Structures are given as C-alpha cells and as structure tokens.
Amino acid sequence: METDQKIAPYAAQFVPVKLDVNSDEFRAWSRDLKETGEGGGIPYIYVVRSDGETLYGQGGALPGDKLPAMLATSLQNSGRVLSTREVESLTTAAQRFTNLQGSGDMAGAIKALNKIGRLGTPGQVASYAQSANKVNELANAAATEVTAQLAELNDPIESGDTAEKVAAVLASLKIESDYSGLKILKPEIAKFKKALGKKKEISQLVREAKVINLAKTASSKTAKKRALEKLQELIDSTEIEEIKTAAQETLDGLSS
Amino acid sequence: MIQRCLLTLIPGLLLVLTTAIPNIAFAQKSNSSVADNLAAAKELSAVSGRPILAVAGSAT
User: Fold this and answer.
1) Which of B1, B13, B45 to mutate to test the interface with A (most CBs of A within 10 A)?
2) Are A50 and B48 in contact (CB under 8 A)?
3) Number of Cβ pairs < 8 A linking chain A and chain B
4) Which segments of chain A are extended strands (E)?
5) A193 and A86 within one domain
6) pLDDT, tens digit, for every residue of A78-133?
7) Are A35 and A90 members of one domain?
C-alpha cells in the first residue's frame, strides 16, 4: 500500500502497457530495446522514451523504494510532456516553416518557427515528442546549412576579385537578414560579422553593400521609398564599379 | 486531428489494472489485440512525449 501511494504521482506521466513475455508482439518489440542492467526474470520492466530510447530495461521486480526511484529517474530523462495545445502549436509551426521555406521566405519561415514561444528555442525544445523533434530537426537543419553557406563565403571575401567580394558580402548580409531570428544560429552569424568587421580593406564595400541589402529587405512602403532614395544616392556616389552595378540591378528590380 | 483524438480518448479508454505494478493503469483495451494496444501506446507516447512504461509478465 505504501508502494502504491509512492507510485500514484507518476502514473499519469507514463503510457503504461502490459505485455505477455511469450507473445510475438513482446518478442518483436523487445528485440529493438536494450537491456540497461542484469536481468532478474519476470516481470520485465521497460521505460521507453517517446523517441524510442530505452531508459530502463531489466527483468525482475523492483521492491520498496526502487520502483518509484526508477520512475522518477526515468522522468528526469524523458523530456517535457506536451499538452494537446502544445502539440498543435509545434505541428503548426513546423508546417508553416516548411511552406514558407518552400516559397523562399526564410525570414517568414523562422518567424513561424519562433511562434512556439514558451515551449523553448527551436532546435533545443526539451521534449522528445514527434512534433518537438520535427521543430528541432527543421531548425538544426537550417542552422547546419547556413553555417556551411557562411563558411563558403570566406574564400571569395578573403581572396576573390571585387565582383566576387561584393557577391559574397551581399550573400552574407542576406543570410543575416533571413536567419537573424534563429536563436541557435546567432553565435555563428555574430562570429562571421565580427570577422567581416575586422577586414578594414573592404569596409567601404561592406558599408555600401548594406545599403543594397536594406533596399532588398525593406518591407513597409515608407521604408522602401527611403531605401530607393538611398540606393540612388549610392549609385551616384560609389567608387566601386561592382557596387554600382549591383545597386542599379536592385533599383531596377524594385522599380519594375 | 488524429493526434488530438488520441490524446483525448486513449487515457480514458485503456484501463486495466495489473498485479505487477499496483496502482498504475495499463494501456490495454480489453477487446483489442496486444499489437493494437502496443501500437496505440507507441502513438500516444510519440505524440505526447510521455514515456512508455511496459511491464511484461507471463500470462500463465
């Protein structure tokens, strides 16, 4: 009875299932599970996290405080249990991210992913539920891809000709605009920006490229109008021919 | 929609007590197969993030 009372608080936090050791289903299922200790015969007790990881797998009863202690330890490693509303929030965020990413709106996609709010940082949501895994997978995949893209920009910025430098700096600025909302990527972007800021020989190029990028990313009508004016000023004043070309192309694209 | 139904209905539907671990209701529909119950438990766990607690004993 004492044991019953000690177990009761944990009951709702698990999905309990009773199996027959001689059943085909148990044999098939337990084949994929790992033993976490020396077996002691029937009953076999397994705690399996929602991502399939075996947290406890051992034969033999757990008398006295051993069972509640095992359940408590397992819960500490099980991640957050989600409510229906939280599952919906994560599922919706993942779907919107995928849709917007597909249409090329990365800034919008990341904004959609960040709608999970208090559930945590996309990429680091502390739950092993499918919907949380999906959000983490999407955020981490985006972070990995962007990290690789930034690494590829180092060479042209370092040793490319002016046209290559302009293209690479503009690409890095676009990445910054698109992905600055992705928290797990912030250290990588900050590191890249810091390194770029130290290259005094291209400081003018970077400053002028920012004007072009600002025009490309301006969203409100007022901001667009102001950005177009700045772009025209840049075209009239820049000494870097490649910047002038890129600015003119942007202006033409935005004016049409 | 399926996930919502599972989260709402399964805990209420699947209740069978066991002697192996007292006071814990086991995910078991009396008229369902073991395979169905196991599949339902896996689905519920995957959706909610709750771990599965499985106790395997002998039916004989």
Assistant:
1) B45
2) yes
3) 165
4) 15-20, 44-48, 54-59
5) yes
6) 999 999 999 999 999 999 999 999 999 999 999 999 999 899 999 999 999 999 99
7) no
Q: Rounded to whole angstroms, how far apart are CA atoms A50 and A64?
A: 27
> Against a cut of 0.90, is the pTM above it?
no
With residues binned 3-state (H G I as helix, E B as strand, rest as coil), the percentages for chain A, rounded to 5, are 70, 5, 25
pLDDT tier for residue A207 given thresholds of 50, 70 and 90? very high
A61/A126 same-domain check:
no
Of residues B16, B50, B54, nearest to A81 (C-beta): B50
Q: What residue ranges of chain B have pLDDT lower than 50?
A: 1, 5-25
Last residue of a domain, one of A21, A42, A76: A76
ipTM field:
0.80
Domain holding A122, by residue range, is 82-198
Pair A172, A251 in one domain: no
Q: Are residues A118 and A172 in the same domain?
A: yes
Total domain count, chain A: 3
